Amino acid sequence: MSAASRYKLVFYVPHSALDACKKAIFAAGAGRYPGPGGYTECAFVSKGLGQFRPGDAAKPHIGHVGELEHVEEMKVETLCVGRDVAVKAVEALKKVHPYEEAAYEVYKLEDM
């Protein structure tokens, strides 16, 4: 019997919404490591600078239509064990993330 597939969820969020986003993805099952240690709410968070220019039809949370915006953001990386957990975590993230379009990535990990 093979182990469940593992995925890495990576997303970017302004600091003001960091805790709400982490709480939502953790409640959906992200950040749990299998094994006897019972680790939960595991993530790596780093600070960076994001940029974007909202288009004419945008309703930006930060910045103004047509103007280049630079925002200090937090990058969050966490593990999702099982595709269902990854899907639920992304759904939870989209519900609480303040941006019109949340910037996120999901990678399927190889077991070595």
TrEMBL record:
According to its UniProt entry, this protein's organism is: Lentithecium fluviatile CBS 122367
User: What is the designated name of this protein?
Assistant: ATP phosphoribosyltransferase
The highest taxon in the source lineage is Eukaryota
* Membrane spanning stretches: none
